[in-house]
Amino acid sequence: MIRMSIISLDQEYVAGTYGRFPVELVSGRGSVLTAADGKKYIDMGSGIGVTAFGFADDDWTNAVTAQLMRLQHTSNLYYTEPCARLAQVLCEKTGMKKVFFSNSGAEANECAIKVARKYSAKKKGPDCYTILTLVNSFHGRTLTTLAATGQDHFHKDFRPLTPGFAHVEANNIAQLLDAASKLNPAGIMLECVQGEGGVNPLTPEFVKAAAAIAEEQDIPLIIDEVQTGNGRTGSLYAYMQFGIMPDIVSTAKGLGGGLPIGATLMGEKVQYVLGPGDHGSTYGGNPVCCAGALSVISRLDETFLTDVCKKSDYVFTSLHQAPGIESVCGLGLMIGIKTVKPAKEVVAACMDRGVLCLTAKDKVRLLPALNIPMENLEKAIEVIKFVCKE
Ligand SMILES: *Cc1c(COP(=O)(O)O)cnc(C)c1O
Predict the structure, then answer these.
(1) Cystine design at 389: which of 124, 278, 308, 323 (Cβ 3.0–4.6 Å)?
(2) Measured distance CA(188)–CA(165) in Å, rounded
(3) Backbone phi, then psi, for 111, in 5-degree steps?
(4) Nearest alpha-carbon partner for 337 in 319, 310, 317, 356
(5) Residue minimizing CA distance to atom 15 of ligand 1
(6) To test ligand 1's pocket by mutation, which of 139, 154, 222, 248 has the most ligand atoms within 8 angstroms of CB?
(7) In this structure, are residues 42 and 380 in contact, taking their beta carbons and an 8 Å threshold?
(8) Which pTM was predicted?
(9) Which atom of ligand 1 is nearest to the CA of 194?
(10) Contact 44, 368 (CB under 8 A)
């Protein structure tokens, strides 16, 4: 009864922007969460792709608490080791040259957009500012990243949005070429697998065409790796599986392992675009968040990523043509399931049976911790299959 009051308190005082499930979570270990009523859940959502190594992971917790006890914040007026080391590791593992740190995916994209606009305005004049993004994309909730997001239902009630964005259909190379030739673009921004849009992977041909256009017109190609990044799709970043080298990579979510951090990685072409005073963030590069991210990134080696791919294969194979399942899509451990039953019903029934899943558009979406133990994964897949066929 005392616990019910937390739900009531939240409903009374927290802005009503979220449709929450009637569950209060109190603790977690590995890939298992415990609710206030003692019920345990296998977590197949990882806080929307954030808790990359699950809950109470020893390495991550030690890295974070050690830094927390030493120094929790400094501002960007001074140097700190976790920030510098994380930037070094990110650049060494990707071939990018510079990193700007922020606190979220939307901010990582804001920075990416600023870099693209400054680069292109300098090269081609002040009329070159339009960023091409895709229909059905998701890039964040600030007014500028909403404008970048190619889904009208997020836009209504908030106009006017930041001008200078145009949306082309995913995987439609002809439309992309047409927009690129007519709209004087300052950049192209895309997710290699559209997450919120329904876990839709782009075709390698389309991603390569975007990269070729960017190269030819000398504009930055921005890959939004907020959801796909940091091991989620079975490679360190998803673009690595598409045979391209972006000019700008934005990432967040799984990077921090559960603490808020965003990063905008800048390649050779744009590495000197941002100068003193061009951009900033009070919390950006926070040493505690960077220490957590350093623990996450340092562990995403070949052996670990091979294991992510094996788990992915297991999920795809288990769900392929299972009763009540129409199709399975995605990459690595970013998986969308088209079910015969409405996705929301499947998620609710799974929850009753102790498995937490997500949705994306009309699909059930799975984003388990990258190190989810096989026994938890097997159990969760069994429950999902049972619920779908019922
Ligand atoms: C979640 C997400 C964002 C926004 O991230 P926030 O941290 O919520 O601001 C941006 N792009 C993609 C692809 C995302 O999945």
Answers:
(1) 323
(2) 10
(3) -65, -45
(4) 319
(5) 227
(6) 139
(7) yes
(8) 0.98
(9) 13
(10) yes
Closest approach atom of ligand 1 to CA 253: 7
Q: Which of 222, 232, 237, 253 to mutate to test the pocket of ligand 1 (most atoms within 8 A of CB)?
A: 253
Q: Facing residues of 189 across strands?
A: 222
Å from CA of 226 to ligand 1 middle: 5
Decide: 372 in ligand 1 pocket, CB within 6 A.
no
What is the H or E stretch that residue 329 is in? Answer: strand 325-331
Looking from the CA of residue 260, the nearest atom of ligand 1 is 7
Nearest CA owner, ligand 1 atom 5: 105
Rounded Cα distance between 291 and 218, Å, is 36
- Closest ligand 1 atom to residue 140 Cα is 4
In short, whether 197's Cβ falls inside 6 Å of ligand 1 is no
- 81-94 and 287-298 helices, crossing angle to 10°: 30
pLDDT in tens, the chain (390 residues): 455 589 999 999 999 999 999 999 999 999 999 999 999 999 999 999 999 999 999 999 999 999 999 999 999 999 999 999 999 999 999 999 999 999 999 999 999 999 999 999 999 999 999 999 999 999 999 999 999 999 999 999 999 999 999 999 999 999 999 999 999 999 999 999 999 999 999 999 999 999 999 999 999 999 999 999 999 999 999 999 999 999 999 999 999 999 999 999 999 999 999 999 999 999 999 999 999 999 999 999 999 999 999 999 999 999 999 999 999 999 999 999 999 999 999 999 999 999 999 999 999 999 999 999 999 999 999 999 999 998
Q: In what order do the strands lie in the sheet with 32-35?
A: 25-29, 32-35, 40-43, 355-356
| Orientation angle between helical segments 302-319 and 374-389, nearest 10 degrees | 20
Distance 174 CA to ligand 1 centre (A): 28
